[in-house]
Amino acid sequence: MKIEVAKTAGFCFGVDRAVEMVSKLLQEGRRVYTLGPIIHNPQLVRKLEMQGCGIVDTPEEVPSGGTVVIRSHGVPAAVFEEIRTRGLDCVDATCPFVAKLHRIAWEESRKGRILLIAGDENHPEVRGICGHVLPIAGEIRGWFVFKNAEELGVLLANHPEWGQKSISVVAQTTFNVSEWKKCLQNIKKVCTNAATFDTICNATALRQTEAVELAKRADQMIVIGGHHSSNTAKLRDVCAAFCKTDLVETADELPVEALRTAHFVGVTAGASTPADIIKEVLVTMAEIIEDTIQNPAETGDPNF
Ligand code: F3S
Fold it and tell me: Considering the entire predicted model, what is its pTM?
């Protein structure tokens, strides 16, 4: 069996930066509280918890003397305001690419333009973006979220007035690149006054492109990452279009039987997957291969 690991697998710049910030604060002896888990990886979150990092849902829960950390996904403007009002010590680990989206949301809505967001409306990043849109006079709300070209089609059909209105369109940083292209084509056909912003993060685009290239050659893909990680789920989806794909959070979840009969396995990992988890999965895969070579009959593969 051949194994090839994607060069881009693992931590992106924004996640690495946020985790480093928390680790540094803990080393300095600060009482750190993150607003939600710092990243969508339970193993790393547990490790930080053991070092004393607390997790809260709202600034209200941060005890006095504590330092609140805003994670890379960012938060709505109202949360920043609450932190300021409470006089809390705050470290902002919002990824600069997400912060850029916040600026676009604020500026476009300030000009009176309606913001359309391609993404998952329940994801904290998208909730954060919506929370930077200013109310637009005369509009019920200034933003709408769609998760794919189909949902966008329904929105456009329900709002024929958008054909002439000032519309601005952005994407969640981890949105699927090819779906985004489809959405832009549809918007340009219908909305004559649409401004579009390519806000998919380069780290996401590179990971998806490399994963697809690998999935086209492999007969099995292993995507390593948290079950609640949006960018990891996107990697699984783009790979699944080309070959059998399994998403595993840890080595225990590896599909042992499928690996024993696979010939070429591609491996990639989400932007929030720590290097030690990737290493652990690769070591376990190597053990499975070794066991398969030593006990070929168990695979049922006629080539052995
Ligand atoms: Fe930032 Fe892109 Fe990572 S937006 S958090 S560098 S996936």
Answer: 0.85
